[in-house]
């Protein structure tokens, strides 16, 4: 079973690479029981979305 430190690390890695089936399973079990890590994962996804929108806006402004 993952601890919160391992889960948050994996949530971060999930944004950069595909997780293995074992990693997905372990992360799913942990986040189903840990609302803090679940919230962290949502925040990471939102930050990624905001960052992409920001960089897309910058590239459109340079044209």
Report a brief summary of the structure.
Pfam families: zf-HC2. With 63 residues, the chain is an all-alpha fold.
Could you name the key traits of this structure?
single chain; 63 residues; mainly alpha; 3 helices; 0% strand; elongated
Radius of gyration (Å) = 15 Å
- Overall structural domain count: 1
Strand residues, percent? under 5%
Low-confidence stretches: none
Beta strands, count: 0
Name the quaternary structure: single chain
What is the overall silhouette? elongated
Instruction: Characterize the largest beta sheet: strand count, sense, and whether it forms a barrel.
Output: none
Provide the succession of SSEs.
HHH
* Number of continuous helical runs: 3
By helix and strand content, what is the structural category?
Answer: mainly alpha
Mean pLDDT: 92
Task: Give the N-to-C terminal Cα separation.
Answer: 49 Å
Specify the helix fraction band. over 70%
InterPro entries: Znf_put
Protein name: Putative zinc-finger domain-containing protein
Domain Putative zinc-finger: 4-38
